[in-house]
Amino acid sequence: MTTTDSAAAAIASERRVALTADGSTDGTAAPPAWVVLTTDGRLGLWTAPPTSARVRVVPCDRRGRPTGTGAPVAGQAEVVRSGAVFDEVRGRVREKYGWRSRFGARRVDTVVLVTPDRPPTPGRPS
Predict the structure, then answer these.
(1) Which of the listed ranges 50-54, 101-105, 119-123 does the model predict with the highest average pLDDT?
(2) What is the radius of gyration, based on Cα positions, of the chain?
């Protein structure tokens, strides 16, 4: 498991995360999102689409304020509205969050997949 993989797994174990556009510094809280790890190592978030493809995912409280309890994961976001990965994320969200997921499913019709950035390999140009 690489450092990036372990950071993604740590974020996926959180109860709630905030998805923000990379470089966002306005200080406002992002809506909290539910998060799971997909079979291919991406983060699957059950939330509204971000405003940018470059994003950061951080642990947050129920109001979307970062908790500072875990390292942020930066990556590339992709919005998915159907298909196998959409179904996988929805199923994993139901497993992780149980009965609460029935309420969120009515409000959100998108999954945001975040492919974490890979750290540069030492000795190789980036």
Answers:
(1) 50-54
(2) 14
